[in-house]
Amino acid sequence: MATGGVNADLAKERERATFDSEQLTNFLYRGPEKVRRKRYLQNLAIQDPVFKKAPLWAFLNREQQYATALKKHLHAYRRIQELGITEPVEKFYYREAAAPHENSPIGLHESMFIPTIEKQATEEQKRKWLPLCHSLKMIGTYAQTELGHGTFIRGLETTATYDPVAKEFILSTPKLTAMKYWPGNLGKTTNHCLVMAQLITKGKNHGIHMFMLQTRDMETHQPLPGIELGDIGPKFGFFDNDNGYMILKDVRIPRENMFMRYYKVLEDGTYVTPPGDRLNYLSMVLLRSAITSMIGQHLSQACIIAIRYSAVRRQTEISPGGEEAQVLDYQTQQYKLFPALATSYAMLMAGRFMYDFYLKTTAQIEKGDLGTMPQLHALSAGLKAFSTWECTAAIEVCRMSCGGHGYSHASGIPKIYVDATPGCTYEGENTVMMLQVARFLMKMYTNLQKGQELPSFVQYMTKSLDTKSCMKEEVAPKCLVMAYEHRASRLIKAAADAIQAMVMSGSSPQEAWNKNTVPLTWAALAFCHMFVVKNFFEMVEDAKMDGQTKAAFMALCKLYAVNGVITHLGEFIQDGYLNNQQVQYIQKSLLDLLAEIRPNAVALVDAFDYPDAILQSCLGRYDGQVYQALYDFAKSSPLNEKEVLDSFFDYVKPVQQELEAMNQPMARL
Ligand SMILES: CC(C)(COP(=O)(O)OP(=O)(O)OC[C@H]1O[C@@H](n2cnc3c(N)ncnc32)[C@H](O)[C@@H]1OP(=O)(O)O)[C@@H](O)C(=O)NCCC(=O)NCCSC(=O)CCCC(=O)O
Ligand SMILES: Cc1cc2nc3c(=O)[nH]c(=O)nc-3n(C[C@H](O)[C@H](O)[C@H](O)COP(=O)(O)OP(=O)(O)OC[C@H]3O[C@@H](n4cnc5c(N)ncnc54)[C@H](O)[C@@H]3O)c2cc1C
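# flavin-adenine dinucleotide complex -> structure
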């Protein structure tokens, strides 16, 4: 363990902050009572001997990582029930502290399997399945993706053919590319899964539907007849999870195993469809809606590590013979880290909006009002894609800003990165999601041209495009937001005009669309960026906190907006909306904001309120004793258990002896 109290530089940083980080913590977690409860639950987990005793994941091989993660998550599952924790966010706090940076092998059971039963099953199915799920007799996952198709789900090849005589569905993966491939925890952990398959009844294919399939015996855990299951092998991250493959050879399941809350197959094979078209896709929307907050949290952890470390790390004397500077004092270091910090806050705010919007909209959908489904789909797809792209890039910036030590697992950042980056791929590959946003925006644009009313978050399109920005030397939030609205509107119009022009000159709408997908993704990205900026300003303005805290928070918000203009400058100036002078104001504002944020940098990351036990980083420690921690980490490497390794005698010695013999003058003759 490191000793020596809090590092002097870090202590000074906390003293010089202009605001009380606890105020911001209270805002982030929605009030002091919730913060107390969060800390209480985290401490319960941190103090639990089962979690405390386990070795650090970084020193384990894959099988050990899987077994440790499973053991911890099962213990957490049991403790959560014993403690009567029911709120999803409270379960999350407990789990995160119980197994930090260890992905749960029963994660999809909790995040997709149970919620899908709750939302898509009939009352009778819920009565049958949910108690078994809660007692873990049934452990399930979501099996949609196949070897040949992940994105284009209408092209899935698994079939569910109804047999009206036996009143059963026959599930089959008729060719190699049809096998289920990738579903989390499918390989070894689960004994049930939700299968997405083409429903065929009375000789007709009705598209993909959801079925409950038991994959393994509930006592012996052996795969059931006709089912081949396995782990897909090591990946870039998620080492501790058994993403799996599954082959089905005419596996029969009862008719009642089709999810029938919305879509039904009657005993005689008649297919009954509800008014809504994409209700089967709602499980994906749930997870997409949660990803923006989740990825914002990943980035916030990377920022804590990189910013605390940059306050402790001293490198290079600024004037000859003088003291070496804290690397955080270099403007270039601030330019790496403060936009990353601003991005994490921006995404936490966007995630908060998204999740609240999800809850509101799904409540309406459940009452039969499907009117807001397209908006929910577009926003959840867009924010998921935008946030995962921005945050994973920023995590990597944080890692590199820690120099060499950032490359070690001792920093904690490499693991954060490899577990965050699949967010760009799963739950809808990001480019594909952006094109879904573009599809929605093009529809809105057409509706606007027809004089129809638009939903509130695309209302800005109704304003005519200003030709000049209102930006002055004092860079005002209002002018920043308007610049983002202008950029989004202009790019939406440009993409729509390009498509329209092609159609007018004889192309089919599909052809025109396919020839313009790059400008369409520019438009969708600009829309998402605008949404995040606007939402961030609104949330900071509405936040109930003292003036100093709000000022510190506002500086971050402005930095997020200003930095976005600079990194996408071409799109803001292409039509002359911002002139040279205005661009200079924005560039100067960026430098001023870096200086303004500098004294508050450590307090702004302290506000995320992550205990050391969760961060698991030698560089991000609250006390800043990084060097002792790095030494302790090195000492604990299993390679150091023996002073001289067997491999020295097995490999080095024989080769040395051979080379020595070869190099004898006699041998060369
Ligand atoms: C890309 C699309 C959206 C295309 O679907 P499609 O039916 O071919 O749609 P289209 O013809 O382009 O559009 C038809 C229409 O369907 C709408 N739509 C599409 N998706 C939704 C939705 N979720 N909610 C509401 N509406 C939706 C579209 O907006 C279109 O509407 P429109 O015709 O324009 O009115 C779809 O195939 C898709 O969602 N693909 C991504 C697959 C995916 O997300 N897989 C996730 C697997 S589970 C997973 O990864 C878990 C990982 C978790 C972990 O490990 O933690
Ligand atoms: C860690 C992890 C966990 C996962 N867990 C699950 C799970 O639990 N359950 C499950 O069912 N699946 C799971 N998946 C699978 C995941 O959902 C898919 O990988 C994802 O939906 C992307 O599909 P794909 O792999 O087919 O990519 P592809 O669609 O093959 O993408 C390849 C490239 O093609 C491009 N592309 C594809 N279609 C288009 C298009 N129409 N227009 C333009 N470009 C296009 C993409 O942008 C991308 O650049 C998981 C994946 C990972 C990595």
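# post-check
Residues 142, 144-145, 150-154, 184, 278, 281, 284-285, 287, 373-374, 377, 426-428, 432, 436, 439 surround glutaryl-coenzyme A (ligand 1) (CB under 6 Å).
Residues 136-274 form a domain with the Butyryl-CoA Dehydrogenase, subunit A; domain 2 fold (CATH 2.40.110.10).
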